[in-house]
Task: inverse folding
């Protein structure tokens, strides 16, 4: 099987990839959570947390950049881990990172309803049930459900369509964000920048959320087979997109801390919009900010749809998931089965209510850090086992960078346990993880029953294609 016969079309240019990564990273969380970050950690505490997170993500990005340039295949983490650690770890990482992507994508419908309600209040019609103390209404849920259906169709009709959509919405998002930052710094006051620090626990509470804020740069390897870009340029796109997102979050923290006093940025439902309205002295500006936030919702949602569907497709193509997931649409060359699964979850998710936002953020961060750890281990092992693997981009001091990522990732994972002091909550957050694990086991057993025996040579070709398969596994 040749690389071209894998079927995905090479239609993504540099701008497409950059906006895909940046737009996916920034999303909507900065609108909803920046006030919370300052409340928990303080202004400088939040900047410290994001600074540490940015350094980690740049290091992670370097390992991804080397591996993606060497193995530019859909599936990203799953592909690298298969190469270094074998099928079992590969399946685990692929399923974990798909959960990270889907987890963030799933609450975008909830976020969209919240954003629209700020501009045009949505009547609470059709009470359904209460989830964790939040009343879920049909009038709210249907907004997110319809938007999820629209994005499902957008992704179905081709990668080029999603790329154009991403460029347009990301451009508008950046423009609105810059207006907010300008207003906050120009019309705000340094007396609003309190507290500067809270305590170590508060900084850790923000720090464990940071990985989910940067989840998005790693959609680049998921789209590797669709890039029309020299392999060496992939590394630059990785690093530039992470630096851009880091600056964005830091500027937003500074902007909201200047713009309004604590009682304004913590009392409302949408803190950044309230802060912008306060700094400009008009509620109209709060609504304008929300329009930018809506674009952020759509860029993030679209990016995670692309990332999650590509890795599920790659797992299906490698016969690790049922056959339905490994097929492309005959005309649009998009992974129909994966799009239906991810889109279906996004359609259902608004029924969980607004409190699910934090659950999805925390569990997605946990799954992302697990994946980063496995990629770093794979990076180090491949440096030892395949020194002659063609690496169009090679990280300087690669062993040191890889070890740093392993240490950081393990440290972050400890934070999610009771020993770290800020663990994932039972039942809501751990229940989401367990449900996804059971779904994965069900699909794995289904795939095993469907394919019976898959030889190592066959799996090698399915994962890597002829161009990147190892010689010892190639059929004679």
Result:
């Amino acid at each position: 099987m040749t690389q071209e016969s894998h079927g995905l079309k090479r239609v993504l240019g540099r701008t497409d990839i950059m906006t895909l990564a940046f737009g996916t990273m920034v999303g909507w969380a900065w609108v909803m959570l920046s006030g919370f970050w300052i409340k928990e950690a303080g202004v400088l505490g939040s900047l410290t947390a994001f600074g540490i997170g940015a350094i980690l993500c740049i290091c992670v990005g370097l390992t991804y950049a080397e591996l993606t340039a060497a193995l530019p295949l859909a599936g990203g983490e799953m592909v690298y881990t298969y190469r270094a650690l074998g099928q079992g770890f590969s399946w685990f990482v692929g399923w974990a990172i798909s959960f990270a992507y889907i987890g963030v994508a799933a609450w975008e419908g909830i976020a969209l309803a919240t954003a629209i309600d700020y501009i045009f209040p949505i009547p609470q019609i059709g009470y359904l049930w209460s989830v964790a103390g939040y009343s879920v209404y049909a009038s709210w849920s249907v907004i997110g459900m319809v938007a999820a259906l629209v994005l499902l169709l957008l992704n179905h009709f081709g990668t080029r369509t999603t790329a154009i959509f991403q460029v347009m919405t990301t451009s508008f998002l950046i423009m609105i964000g810059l207006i907010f930052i300008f207003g906050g710094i120009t019309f705000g006051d340094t007396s609003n920048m309190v507290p500067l620090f809270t305590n170590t626990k508060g900084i850790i509470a923000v720090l464990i959320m940071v990985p989910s804020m940067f989840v998005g740069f790693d959609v680049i390897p998921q789209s590797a087979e669709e890039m029309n870009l020299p392999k060496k340029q992939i590394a630059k796109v990785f690093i530039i997109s992470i630096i851009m997102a880091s600056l964005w979050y830091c500027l937003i923290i500074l902007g909201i801390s200047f713009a309004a006093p604590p009682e304004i940025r913590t009392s409302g439902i949408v803190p950044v919009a309230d802060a912008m309205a306060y700094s400009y002295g008009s509620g109209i500006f709060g609504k304008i900010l929300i329009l930018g936030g809506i674009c952020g919702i759509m860029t993030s949602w679209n990016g995670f749809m692309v990332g999650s569907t590509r890795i599920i497709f790659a797992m299906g193509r490698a016969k690790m998931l049922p056959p339905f997931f490994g097929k492309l649409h005959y005309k649009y060359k998009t992974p129909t089965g994966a799009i239906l699964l991810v889109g279906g979850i996004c359609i259902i998710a608004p029924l969980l209510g607004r409190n699910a936002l934090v659950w999805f953020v925390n569990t997605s961060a946990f799954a992302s850090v697990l994946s980063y750890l496995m990629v770093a281990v794979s990076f180090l092992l491949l440096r030892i086992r395949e020194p002659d693997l063609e690496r169009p981009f090679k990280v300087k001091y690669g062993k040191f960078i890889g070890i740093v990522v392993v240490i950081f990732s393990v440290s972050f994972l400890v934070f999610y346990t009771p020993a770290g002091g800020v663990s994932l909550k039972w039942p809501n957050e751990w229940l989401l993880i367990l449900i996804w694990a059971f779904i994965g086991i069900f699909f794995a057993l289904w795939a095993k029953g469907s394919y019976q025996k898959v030889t190592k040579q066959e799996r090698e070709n399915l994962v890597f294609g002829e161009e990147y398969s190892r010689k010892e596994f190639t059929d004679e």
In short: Residues 283-317 form the longest helix (35 residues). Residues 1-5 have pLDDT under 50 and may be disordered. The CA atoms of residues 20 and 69 lie 18 Å apart.
